[in-house]
């Protein structure tokens, strides 16, 4: 018989789940498990802010395809972590958020005046798939199992578990509790959907003259991109993705239309007679799947595949609903399509028509970066050209992100990180660090605005301490670029509080943290600066100076503004 603390019991449960690292900030209540980390092969990544820790866990999960753990301390630490968990909730990332809590005799009912005590379950409940508190030492492993089960069931998402300090420090006999590996309690991947529904879907696709395939983030989680592309190629169908799913289709595919190529993709979507939606709820940035951006229900048939039945038909009616894992549904659907003699009908949308859409979009992109003035699009295009196709891109900011979406194509699945559903500024640097930890052999670069980088700039020290050589490119226009654009379009008669200190030197901050820093004032300096950053072997920040006026109107800004700020309900 061996006696273990609640902290060690937590480590045993996490080890059984395959966790090898966790992200957070130290707290005295964590000492019982911190003292035993090495015994269980789990690494504690000590960040500089709990929100950044949750963002790192979010990124780690999205790149690795596995759940990740974020740790917050009692009271203020858990409160700090909340914004990172909210973002993971919006993005559908299985983050296991754990925090300390005050002793069980004083947390409920609140006696009043207890130090650092707040109702954390009430705080986290609305922004997690499940929130629970451990109240008995013996049930801690069971609660951990339930947390992982909830995070991974259906559409992934974060969960929250609070562990009071008396339970964390409490002891018991290890033989009195059971630690189970996932294979002993968690079901395997869901099935491949209703065979009859798959047959009906195959019939619709084979008879379509204008088939269109649209992918969401669920396709990335399922690792089903190859079958999705094979189906599209067999049907000669056009392709789009949600903003968060970029990369599941290589963005140089001849039948792919970029997310901000609104004229092209809305024409194709509107005229499609059959649409296959996989792993997407068809949300606001997809105009809710409604006409006139999409075809009208009744004239356009929709097949919707999703692992979560609550996501099917959420924003528009469907004609065939298939609940199942895309990794199983798509091979079955592809086989059913290929087996039909009439599956090779020539679509009405010819290759030449698609090329025309692409040429018009490319002309718009080329026009936006023409001229001698250093332009964010020029910067983004040069950065993308420097890194290999398999590099992981992270975007952060307002207008900077729009430039990034337009000029930074993504070619591989799980190669793009952005908070596409929540738009949370400051995710960029911790996302980049989490991505580098999940894929240490792949280049990781962040393109950020100068406003966004300020939210978590201190994580450069984390990058240096853990030797995470990410490359950060800050587009420095001395202010809040998207707010300048917004106020200009609103004709406010001037700018109100949009300016930042024009002499700020983020590259010097990077150097002060022990990282590589560089200042770039012209486009011909950028490639040598990128090479020097890579050659340094250090985390690096390159500050690129542009004139504020060059960042006011990225391609697609008006379309984006119409979608988000003026509404499409």
The CA-CA distance between the termini, in Å, is 62 Å
DSSP strand tally: 19
Estimate the mean pLDDT confidence.
Answer: 89
Rg, nearest Å:
25 Å
Q: Could you estimate the helical fraction of the residues in percent?
A: 25-40%
The secondary-structure class comes to alpha/beta
Q: Rough shape?
A: globular
Largest sheet properties:
6 strands, parallel
Give the helix tally.
24
Name the strands of the widest sheet in spatial order: 3-2-4-5-7-6
Strand content: 15-25%
Model regions low in confidence, pLDDT < 50 over at least 5 residues: 563-569
Describe the fold and architecture:
With 569 residues, the chain is α/β, with parallel strands linked by helices. 40% of the residues lie in helices and 16% in strands. The chain is globular. Residues 563-569 have low confidence and may be disordered.
Give a brief outline of the structure.
This protein is 40% helix and 16% strand. The chain is α/β, with parallel strands linked by helices.
């Amino acid at each position: 018989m061996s006696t273990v603390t609640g902290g060690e019991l937590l480590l045993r449960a996490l080890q059984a789940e395959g966790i090898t690292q966790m992200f957070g900030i130290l707290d005295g209540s964590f000492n019982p498990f911190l003292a035993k980390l090495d015994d269980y092969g789990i690494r504690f990544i000590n960040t500089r802010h709990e929100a950044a820790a949750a963002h790192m866990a979010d990124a780690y999960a999205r790149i690795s395809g596995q759940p990740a753990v974020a740790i917050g301390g009692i009271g203020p630490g858990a409160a700090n972590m909340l914004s990172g968990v909210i973002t993971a909730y919006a993005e559908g990332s299985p983050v296991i958020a754990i925090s300390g809590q005050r002793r069980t005799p004083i947390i409920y009912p609140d006696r009043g005046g207890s130090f650092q005590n707040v109702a954390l379950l009430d705080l986290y409940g609305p922004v997690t798939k499940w929130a629970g508190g451990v109240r008995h030492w013996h049930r801690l492993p069971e609660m951990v199992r339930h947390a992982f089960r909830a995070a991974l069931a259906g559409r992934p998402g974060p969960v929250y578990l609070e562990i009071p300090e008396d339970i964390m420090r409490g002891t018991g006999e290890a033989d009195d509790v059971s630690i189970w590996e996932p294979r002993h309690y968690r079901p395997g991947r869901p099935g491949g959907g209703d065979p009859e529904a798959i047959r009906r879907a195959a019939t619709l696709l084979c008879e379509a003259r204008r088939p269109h395939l649209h992918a969401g983030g669920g396709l990335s989680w399922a690792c089903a991109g190859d079958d999705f592309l094979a189906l599209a190629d067999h049907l000669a169908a056009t392709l789009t993705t949600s903003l968060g799913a970029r990369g599941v289709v290589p963005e140089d595919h001849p039948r792919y239309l970029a997310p901000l190529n609104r004229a092209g993709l809305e024409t194709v979507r509107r005229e499609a007679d059959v649409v296959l939606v996989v792993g997407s709820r068809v949300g606001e940035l997809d105009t809710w799947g409604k006409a006139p951006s999409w075809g009208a229900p009744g004239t356009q048939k929709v097949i919707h595949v999703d692992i979560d039945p609550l996501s099917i038909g959420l924003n528009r009616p469907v004609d065939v609903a298939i609940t199942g894992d895309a990794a199983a549904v798509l091979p079955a659907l592809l086989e059913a399509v290929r087996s039909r003699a009439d599956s090779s009908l020539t679509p009405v949308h010819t290759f030449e028509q698609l090329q025309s859409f692409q040429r018009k979009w490319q002309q718009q992109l080329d026009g936006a970066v023409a001229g001698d003035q250093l332009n964010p699009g020029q910067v983004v295009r040069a950065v993308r050209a420097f890194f290999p196709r398999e590099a992981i891109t992270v975007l952060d900011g307002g207008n900077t992100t729009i430039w990034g979406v337009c000029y930074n194509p993504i070619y591989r699945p799980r190669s793009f990180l952005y908070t596409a559903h929540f738009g949370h500024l400051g995710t960029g640097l911790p996302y980049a660090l989490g991505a580098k930890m999940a894929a240490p052999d792949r280049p990781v670069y962040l393109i950020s605005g100068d406003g966004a980088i300020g939210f978590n700039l201190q994580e450069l020290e984390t990058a240096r301490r853990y030797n995470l050589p990410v490359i950060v490119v800050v587009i420095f226009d001395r202010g809040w670029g998207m707010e300048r654009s917004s106020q200009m379009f609103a004709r406010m008669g001037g700018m109100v509080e949009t300016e930042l200190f024009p002499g700020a030197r983020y590259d010097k901050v990077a150097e002060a943290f022990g990282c590589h820093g560089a200042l770039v004032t012209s486009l011909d300096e950028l490639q040598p600066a990128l090479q020097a950053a890579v050659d340094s072997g250090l985390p690096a920040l390159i500050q690129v100076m542009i004139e504020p006026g060059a960042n006011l109107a990225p391609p697609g800004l008006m379309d984006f503004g119409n979608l988000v700020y003026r509404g499409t309900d």
